[in-house]
Records
---
Amino acid sequence: MPVIKSVFKNVRVNERKRLINLKTKNSFKNEVKEIKQLLLAKKIAEAEKLLPKVYKVLDIAAKKHVIAANSAARKKSSLARQIAAAKK
């Protein structure tokens, strides 16, 4: 248990930030899962429509430092390649 007053505050702040980061991380994970399910179901047009939304969510997560910028770029590139491959 913390003894110093400022440490109590740090614990509260860390918990609040952890929940915000968790919400951001879950949102992009759910969007990526949704696109992958659409690709498995061969619904390529719907996946293409959802792609800008996924890009936005990944960019926000990278901007908030929830995930690394390169990680977001890699996920976006991977999804774009999967959609392009499914079109063929």
---
Amino acid sequence: REFVRQEIGDRHAYQWALHVPTAADGGEQPHFHLMFSERQVDGIDRDPEQYFKRYNAKAPEKGGARKGYGPSAGQTLTKAERAAELKELRGRWEAMCNAHLERAGVEQRIDMRSHAERGTGLEPERKQLPSAWRGEGRAQVIEFRAARAEVAQAAAELRRAVPDTGAEIIHLEAERQRREQAQREARERAEREKAQQERQRLERMSSRELAQEIARLRPPRVIDLVERDRAVLQAEAERQALQNQHTEAGSAAARARDQAQAWREAHKVQAWFHDKGIGHAPKLRELEQQREEHRAEWQRLGQRIEEASLRVQHVRQQAHQRITAEQEPTLAKLAELEALQKEKARQEREAEAKRLQQQRIEREREEESMAALEHRLAELRAAQEADATQPEPSDDDPRWAAFERTFMHAAQFEHYLSLTVLAAPLAGLKARFAAYMDTAAEQGMTPEMFAQACAKGMAEQERRAMQEQAARDADPKQPQEDSPVSTPTP
């Protein structure tokens, strides 16, 4: 019913019948007969006499129903097109029938393909006429079909027992392709990781290291490699060998000519008769023949030298093209490295310029701070010398402990000053520490920073004193240590 609804529906008048006769082997042989009219139901009410008349396209209600069935209704089809439509119809029946078999829980399935399309290796059974089913023919047909079923079952069991070589080959080929793909992906991944590591290594290099790397990777000149190429050397050797033979042939021809001329001078009469064709001088004829042979060889070798020179030129061009192509990846990498090296050098120059500028700024700040501090200390020393009162004690100043600790450590362990040298200056600092520290604080200095500055200044003063003493020892005219001129400033 579902198949009839699918193929006929309400578009045509039809009727069908289901038959289940007994088959030759005793089983059931279900089949159905479907009869329908190709006249299309178009909704126009017609009596039976009008229904089967010719269709009227201009006035359908005046004519009969239109003919046409299926997707190509009303079209004239070729034999191949009709065969294709029939094949599609069989395919639709196969799909619907198998769906209902599965729904009913039946394992068997139908297949509308031929034995050749399915690859069963069986021949289609010929149509059996009614006469073949009478008498002994019926038993023979049943026996034949049973035997063929046994053969089919044996073939199926054989296929299960014997591996499918074709399928195994296909499986192995697929496995080979899968492994090759995996290996290719692994190589590509390794190459990417190696390239990433190489980029990181190059990025960590300085401009000088990059310049060394560029010099290491830079290949020799192409022209030098061309001259050392094996094919070029061989072609050049062949040309040089021909050139040597050419020179030897020319020399041999010249020797034969000179010998012939000398023979003529020694045998003028025989030479005159020889030239006039009166008799022949065998020796002269031999020398002239040698000259001609050597000259012909000289000319022939000259042509071969030209050909060899062209061959050398051609081999050089081929070597130049090959070597240039081989160096392209290296030269491309060198171009990248050179660009990176230039960028690194620019960054290093900028960083160095910033560093020097920062050092200059810090030095200027330090010089300004020290100048202001020295100026203030000079004022305080002048005030101390002018003030006859007792110096202010510094024991009560809480900043003195931090100053003294930092000063002693810096003076002894950073500037290597002895306690003897430190005693008098430290006492002077302690006497006026509060005033000195207030001045240093105005410059933004902590007790520790002021202690470092004092230790550094004292070390510099001690160094100048030692230099002056060394100069006095070297030059007796210099003032002596007890001279007021050479006395260091306290």
---
Amino acid sequence: MEVDELMCLPRLPRVAVCGGTHGNELSGVYLVRELLKVEKKAVEEEEEPVSVMIVLSNPRATQQCHRYVDTDLNRCFTHATLNGPISDTDPYEIIRSRELNALLGPKGSRQAVDLVCDLHNTTANMGMCFITYSDCDWICLHIFRHLQKEIPDIPMRFIHFDVSNKESYSLDSVGKHGFAMEIGPQPHGVVRSNIYTAMKGGVQHMLDWVRLFNSGAIFRGGFVDVFTMVKHIDYPRDSVTHNITAAIHPHLQVRPEMYFYLQCLKTEPSLTQETLKINCNLTTSCI
């Protein structure tokens, strides 16, 4: 294949697929359980060792079917949180974040796993969404384009949060490359078969791409629409009690393009985005 310019990137020998970071987002929980069974069977049958680490991120929250036990685990991976003083009285998720950082990281080090895919669900009718901290991570962008091609019947969006590595707070930031794969709509504490199947397919296609990449395949560059945060938009509130006084209009509630509205009133602001054109103009290959 003739290419104008070739970017050579290191192989991705170690990949982590994580589910249950939020214990009530069950597609990832059940997919991780299934993948762990497959992994165990492969070891028992002495097949070729796979470079995929399967992780149930928050076992206690998963057991209780709650988002978290003490505090949101997916906000516990900043540099300050991972490297500050710790004691036995700290919240469970703070302690667990240290354990995951030791398992998958340390964050920002050469020893960190090469790619982290963290699985999430949302109640929003958003289809499949990649969430990352970089709009120029060619690995994540090419994986996203591959999934767009392989799963054309599912709406897909790529969301970029402009946060530094030290301030990045989610589990996927521990790896050299990482993204959250969030799929909806699915109520918390429930598994919908179509959402589970979409997530399973997304993970499989992601791993297929990694295997191709590691084999030395060349990937043509192109364009990806990347959404980024413009501003926070809160609900109307009572001036005295500050209670929310409005809801999403029924004509907007189930529209796929309204995918990133308020998902959790206590922790997540509603967002709007502008579309950026990100050019993956360098063909990638492994070295």
---
Amino acid sequence: MTAAPTILLVGTVDTKRDELAFLRERLLALGARARLMDVGVLAAGHAPVDIANTEVAAAAGTTLRAVIDGGDENIAMTRMAEGAAAIASRLHAQGEIQGLLALGGTMGTDLAFDVAAALPLGCPKVVLSTVAYSHLIPPERITPDLIMVLWAGGLYGLNSLCRSALAQAAGAVVGAARAALPPRSHRPLVGMTSLGKSCLAYMVALKPALEARGYELAVFHTTGMGGRAFEALAAAGRFAAVMDFSLQELANHVGGSVVTAGADRLTGAGRAGTPQIVAPGAVDMVDFPAWAPVPPVLAGRPVHRHNRLIASATSAPTLRAAIARAIGERLGAAKGPTCLLLPTRGIEQWDRPGEPLHDA
């Protein structure tokens, strides 16, 4: 826990000067420290900053003048995002910041996602955005532990409505940074994936068995964001061993579903050389949002609607072959001990005799 955490405050001072100044005041009033990073490119801001936009551009291997002269706002903010992410990563590694607070419209939000992605899981990250939770945001841009707050009524200038949102965002990041407990354990940590007891029930038996042998178990819900967090920790070598028994996020990726953990699924432990036991749990299904139309690739396939958020359809044989190849390629590239288990009585609960997806 940190009584007076330092928060990295990120925004475009050229267009959001008053809002950033208000946020800085709120952070200080809450007992935190603030380091303001200017990622704007239009002009030098009038508010005092701790990290100038020229320094941000330099961290991306360019100059502010070169960014401006490029004449393309998308490329400009992409380069500034590179520099901002590099600086944020360095500051956190050096113990100089304990949280991130960024704000913006589409430009600032786009940049903020890259900065958040540069910080490790567990470092508080709050993005105050006019497009929070919008369909504009692809799932792969969202860091697993990101907090988003809608910046309602704040597109231009301060008012009572947006001050409330700004103050709440400041309170959220300070509270999270102050309350954070870095994960520390005297027992080796095993990372496990699952979909929950209604579909994959092995964790109920394995958790006490592993704990009896002196291990700590962390189970990740493989519905997209859980898999992203699992892969990030696995790639960082945070697990003593991995039991990756729920691979339908990889099936989702191969099948083109939005419920995905990205192209790196089933690679983190292998790259880190961590011992892994893998099973093809639920790879016969492709998930999709229950409120959306059935994707064309799954048209005519048996569907199981788990709840109002998520549904699953069985995949066709050609897609299953592609999924199997993806599993084999990833496991074949692993640097550490790897074991693939093949169940003989179904690969998930709904595949068992009498269940809706049995032999579908």
